[in-house]
Amino acid sequence: MSQQKPLIQSLAYIVAESTDVAGWKNYAEQVLGAATAGAPDGGLYVRLDERSLRMAVVPGSENRYAASGWEVANAADFTAAVAAIEKAGVQVSAGSAAVKAARCVSDLVTFTDPSGNRHELTVGYTGGESKFVSPIGVAGFKTGAQGMGHTVLPALNFDATLKFFQDVLGFGLSDVFNFQMGPDAPVVRIYFLHAGAGRHHSLALAEMPSPSGCVHVMLEVNEKDEVDRGEARREKAGVKLMATLGQHENDKMTSFYMMTP
Q1: Beta-strand (E) ranges in the chain?
Q2: What are φ and ψ of residue 243, in 5° steps?
Q3: How many angstroms separate the CA atoms of 169 and 45, rounded?
């Protein structure tokens, strides 16, 4: 049974490793309609709102999802979350001063969940608060207290990973989807979990492998027309379509799926 109060408030940001930071900049600005800025590690900040970053693209030897950045409300919750993770037998590593500065937070630790996904736990946003202006006129993204959106992570060690997020960090269960590709295919469990800030789910765990390190990440805009315009930009840019436009049964989102760089 999960705790009454989730220790984590929201998904504050994600980290992507890339061999082509310039390609990410073009994708973020011209396809997503996000704003960008250079990061102190030679990477890229992708902005969706007044915060300095909601996605951090770091230079590297692979193109993959590197980490999920989770935010707690205050220092007391940060201390409690770290203690709960350590009590569960999961190693916690303190973030360096350089990493804290790069993520624009006052404190940060890292840990790996039972399925091998890397996470950054943070408190105390220290970055800028300038008005978001899209380079191509996107009106805005739905973020705020609910965080940047949601992430769906591979969880082959499914039961232990689910137990970790529910019983250790207090995530609540939003709903369950049992996915089957065909009549003879195995059933894949996908469980949707909510944090403390009110989004239907900030995290979903999928019982499947994903070489990129992530099944998908969701960004939410404020109007359906923005989704349609985003799909048109995707097509014009030649970005690979992963799933066509449609509405989800659980959270009622209308969306399409596309490949990132």
Answers
A1: 10-18, 35-38, 44-47, 55-59, 64-71, 93-94, 105-112, 118-125, 150-154, 172-180, 187-194, 203-206, 216-218, 241-247, 254-258
A2: -155, 135
A3: 28
pLDDT 10s digits, 210-260: 999 999 999 999 999 999 999 999 999 999 999 887 776 666 788 999 999
Instruction: Find the mean pLDDT for residues 53-58.
Output: 98
Element (H, E) at 205: strand 203-206
Q: Which residues pair with 189 in a beta bridge?
A: 178
Burial class (CB in 10 A: 0-12, 13-18, 19+), 76: exposed
Burial of 184 (0-12, 13-18, 19+ CB in 10 A): exposed
Token pair, residue 253, equals 């989102």
Of residues 111, 56, 54, 53, the one with CA closest to residue 81:
111
User: Which of helix, strand or coil describes residue 189?
Assistant: strand
pLDDT per position as a tens digit, 62-109: 999 999 999 999 999 999 999 999 999 999 999 999 999 999 999 999
CB atoms near residue 2 (< 10 Å): 16
In this structure, which amino acid lies at residue 57?
V
The four Cα atoms 16, 12, 213, 132 give a dihedral, to 10 degrees, of: -40
Task: Extract the tokens encoding 26.
Answer: 């073009």
Write out the H or E segment, with its range, that includes residue 229: helix 224-237
User: Is the Cα dihedral 117, 253, 258, 132 positive or negative?
Assistant: negative
Positive or negative, the CA dihedral 85, 86, 90, 95 is positive
Give the span between the Cα atoms of 32 and 197, in whole angstroms.
Answer: 24
